[in-house]
Write a structure and sequence with these properties.
Length: about 220
């Protein structure tokens, strides 16, 4: 598989997200997302992780030719590179176009996998920042990290992620419920907004700090 030195400017970022959306809408990814929608008997954490697996698989397929590695580190590098490409470009036409394309990605994912329509249901960036901060604090709390360590740390590596998701979803739903975004749909909406706004420095900082603490407690390798 071809690799090079990753170079990402705003034009390449737009091309990447456009291509991701094309795959989500018209490839086998759409079939897999529809299958998630029909499996309503599964826990939300399982269905959410399955949807992310589809999104990450499509994203990796698209970003590797741009020089990013085809693994979790490649996705992280891609997200960070988008943040760098956007630096100092607030309120430009390109930024607005990228935000619209990102919104389209999550609209496709959530409509297909959960039947949730994002039209008219966006959460403001200020609300997302506040909830991300509250969730980050809960995820770094001593009680939660102890629970993660006791239930996840000693599991085989292939079992860690699903068990960790089963702990994270109810923890995060406490915050969404408390802020008026109730139930499964409220959780789904917030997650979509956080992913759409992950280049926001405040959101990125809070969630990165939280995930670093959780991954350490779960003893999940980062490389």
């Amino acid at each position: 598989m071809w690799r090079g030195e990753p170079k990402l400017d705003i034009d390449r970022a737009l091309n990447i997200v456009e291509t991701i959306n094309m795959y989500l809408e018209s490839s086998n990814a759409q079939v897999r997302l529809n299958e998630i929608h029909t499996n309503t008997g599964q826990d939300l954490s399982v269905r959410w992780q399955s949807m992310l697996d589809v999104y990450f698989a499509v994203s990796l397929h698209v970003i590797v030719p741009f020089g990013f590695s085809g693994d979790q580190q490649g996705l992280q590098h891609y997200t960070a590179s988008i943040g760098q490409a956007l630096a100092g470009m607030q309120n430009t036409p390109e930024i607005k176009e990228l935000q619209e394309l990102s919104s389209e990605s999550w609209a496709l994912l959530l409509k297909s996998a959960f039947g949730v329509d994002l039209d008219g249901q966006a959460i403001s960036v200020e609300q997302v920042r506040a909830m991300a901060k509250a969730i980050s604090q809960d995820m770094q709390g001593t009680d939660f990290l102890n629970e993660v360590e006791s239930k996840v740390k000693n599991l085989p590596i292939e079992q860690k992620q699903p068990v960790l998701m089963s702990l994270l979803v109810p923890l995060q739903m406490k915050t969404t419920n408390a802020n008026g975004f109730e139930g499964e749909e409220g959780y789904v909406l917030l997650q979509a907004e956080m992913m759409k706004n992950m280049a926001d420095p405040e959101i990125q900082h809070n969630m990165a700090a939280a995930m670093t603490a959780v991954i350490r407690a779960a003893d999940i390798p980062t490389q």
